[in-house]
Amino acid sequence: MYLTGSRTARRIQDARATRERVPFNVKMLGVVSLLTDVSSEMLVAVVGYYLLNVLHESPTVIGFLDGLYNGIPALLAIPAAYLADRWQRRKLLAGLGYGASAVTKLGFPLVGPSFGGLSGLLSADRFGKGVRTAPRDALISLSTPPKIMGRAFGVHRMLDNIGAMIGPLIASFVLLWTTKFGTERRTFDALFVIAFCVAGIGLVVFCLYVVDQRDELRERSAASLGAAFGLLRQRWFVLCGLAVALLGFAWVSDTFVYLTLAHRMHLTASEYALLATGTMGTFVVSAVAVGALADRIGRWKVFVLGHLLLVVAYLTLSADVPGVVMLVAALVLPGLAYAASDGVLMAYCSPHIPAALRTSGIAVMQSIGAVAGFVSSLVFGVAWSHSDPASVMRWFALAMAAAVALATLLVSPWKEHFSD
Amino acid sequence: MTDDLREEAETKTQEPAPTHDKRAKILISAIAVLAVVAVAAGLAAFLGRSKQRAGVVGSFTVAGGQLTYRTTVQGPDFGKVVEQPLAAAQGAAPTLSNIPCERSYTASRVLLCLQSEGDLMSQPYAEIYDSSLKQIKKLEITGTPNRARLSADGRMASWTTFVTGDSYTQPGASTRTSILDLKTGAYIDSLEAFAATVDGKPYKAVDVNYWGVTFTADDNTFYATMGSTSKTWLMRGDLKAHTLTALRENLECPSLSPDGTRLVFKKRVSDDIRRPWRFTVLDLATMKETPLAETRSVDDQAAWLDAHTVMYAVPHDNDPGSDLYAVPADGGGAPRLLALNGMSPSVTSG
């Protein structure tokens, strides 16, 4: 073309890139996540009921199992991610994760009402979750041109969370159905089969339409354990991880935001149950737009701005404001913050991590976030028991403001450069 | 690398994949097969559901001296409250009410029923019915119904629910216990508002939970369990004074005998979290404990069948049902089956 080489050409190319369509691979991964989430949420609702009413386990036992299972994905994430890099087989590991979760559902009718069998199956389901997350995000990042990374992650997270939203809805229908029509063994078995079918369709889509991104490793050492640890010697990786940890510590978990809201607005149980829909809804609606904005003005900038919204949210929750204002602040702002952090962080980090180590790097970042969130919840819980929710919120607003300031010092939002 | 080149490079590294057309065919057939399996599974469960009735439709009266419980016969009557004369033959069909409950209790022509309504958003309620089964009170409550109790004269009602939202520092659910005075309408939403004393000192902790209330004859004093830091206490409560005083440690779900002299309760005897309890009777005058002949670990607030016998529900191994058993309160004898497929038993006081 006659424009080749000129500045105008590059600008046209840039503009074309930002209008570029999100890769098919990413959309398919989103659909798979959606179906898997629907299936898992069905299971969560049914298994809780099953443990309590059919196996007659006490809530203490169920709570104990819950804590145990939630630890499994956290422990598995990094080793699984390392293997995905080592073998350059991200689709294999992600598929293993999706497959484990799908097959688990078929196991429930087979093991029947046995406590040991159920515990094993629930562990397998959680194993699937731990194994698939980082390889999946690595696949998204490797399938996407860096310029539209934010938007691509936005599209995936939107689909993923639609699943998480309609899953509980379906689960409620399902539970209603089980409790009204006899609550028999065969009813549960039917539900497990249905959950398997939903996850199975997801797995079929995954196998057929998701394409692996495998880098021909120039040297075997590129994805060795040493190289993986080498990530931890890179200055930007450490600074970024530190910033993510600080921001994670100051992030108040949804449960506490809702509890504070319920405490201050005297909500009933059914109103309380609706709160999560508000946050998730905002996340789903804004994920793509916020991702695209991040591509345009800078991903770290948007990531940090999202956390600034939380400062506003926490201050509102601790202040004497009308109920409506408090409700909007507590649901819409964290929803936007999710849209600005979850996928956007991945979109920011991914291009910085060598492709050979993409999965491991992503897994480390995600684990930092998970651990920080866990510590934050512990601190909030203890603080709440020694004080009242409004003042704890004020402290967390302060902590978040400080974390945002520190994060900006650690990784400057104004000097975002890409090596591509 | 320009984006076009990158795309080309990507297609090159792809494994030889079936053509687009073929993949679509596989996908559509897979969806069709799985959808048929899902629908078939659903239909099989729906068509195969039990239609067995749990008793006979008749005049349900909440009359004194009758054994009342919720039936767990699977089918259209699951959860409905039924009653039968104490002298009824083993296996005789009970009289059905049309009131489904998750927990129930009867006393002195009053029926207390905890149940959830609503389809997508289920909302639990505490409901009170009179002897003509007319609803006389309905209160919105929070959580999953767990215990229900009335005072012998039918004036005081109490219930405990499991509330998951409250528990955050540790795994496991917390409980909420409410008390309602049907005569004055006075309502205590949560016993946690009362001042608790342990060993003469005020007891304050965030993880305090109360469950399993049983009322004395004066309608002011009651007993309940307090749980905190993995310990439990028998508390004596005073409704007028809004106080709770610890009497004894390691005692759950007390239930006062009709003569007011003994409590049957769950004593924690094992560290096995799946079978921790043994039913034990406490003599309130001597504070002497007597373990009962029931050796299964039963998670229920027992009720008194008569002055010498307690009754409780033992869950089935693999369905949401349970059977009613009775055991002598003096530690002797052996558990005997009282009724199949029952839960929340009570002998309606006169």
Automatic annotation (TrEMBL), chain A:
* Major localization listed first in the record, in broad terms: membrane
Residue stretches spanning the membrane: 29-52, 64-84, 158-178, 190-211, 232-252, 272-293, 300-317, 323-349, 361-383, 395-414
Q: Which domain of life is it from?
A: Bacteria
Q: Which residues form the Major facilitator superfamily (MFS) profile domain?
A: 25-416
Q: Is Lyase among this UniProt entry's keywords?
A: no
Q: Where in the cell is it found?
A: Cell membrane
Q: Which UniProt keywords apply?
A: Membrane, Transmembrane, Transmembrane helix
PROSITE patterns registered for this protein in UniProt: MFS
Establish whether keyword Transmembrane is in the entry: yes
Per the database entry, which stretches of residues form a coiled coil?
none
Regarding the membrane, this protein is recorded as: Multi-pass membrane protein
Q: What is this protein called?
A: MFS transporter
TrEMBL record, chain B:
Lineage start:
Bacteria, Bacillati, Actinomycetota, Actinomycetes, Catenulisporales
Q: Which InterPro entries match?
A: 6-blade_b-propeller_TolB-like
Official protein name in the record? PD40 domain-containing protein
Identify the keywords attached in UniProt to this record, alphabetized: Membrane, Transmembrane, Transmembrane helix
Question: Which regions span the lipid bilayer?
Answer: 26-47
The species this protein was found in: Catenulispora yoronensis
